[in-house]
Design a protein that fits this description.
The chain has a single domain, classed as lambda repressor-like DNA-binding domains (434 Repressor (Amino-terminal Domain)). The mean pLDDT is 91. Helix 2 crosses helix 3 and helix 2 packs across helix 4. The protein starts with a helix and ends in a 16-residue tail after the last helix. By secondary structure, the protein is an all-alpha fold. The protein has 4 helices and no strands. 21% of the residues are buried. The radius of gyration is 13 Å and the shape is elongated. It is 57% helix and 0% strand.
């Protein structure tokens, strides 16, 4: 089983770092992604109560490739 809390925090931190590298505010990202600023804030904080779709939209805005590879628990893809 995956540690979703840790994954959420790592993804959120990567998004925050990239957003700041681009000189963007959370509001900038939210407007481009078509989301609320609070959603961007929750994603950056590693809050697990956001949809994957929201995370994917935000990551795309900042040019972050999430590199998700679905696989079974036994390691098969």
């Amino acid at each position: 089983m995956y540690d979703l809390t840790n994954i959420s925090r790592q993804v959120g931190a990567a998004i925050r770092v990239r957003r700041k590298q681009l000189g963007m505010t959370q509001q900038d990202v939210a407007e481009i992604a078509g989301l609320q600023r609070q959603t961007v804030s929750r994603v950056e904080a590693g809050n697990e109560a956001v949809t994957f779709s929201s995370v994917a939209h935000i990551a795309a805005v900042v040019g972050l490739d999430l590199g998700v590879t679905p696989r079974y628990d036994d390691g098969r893809t």
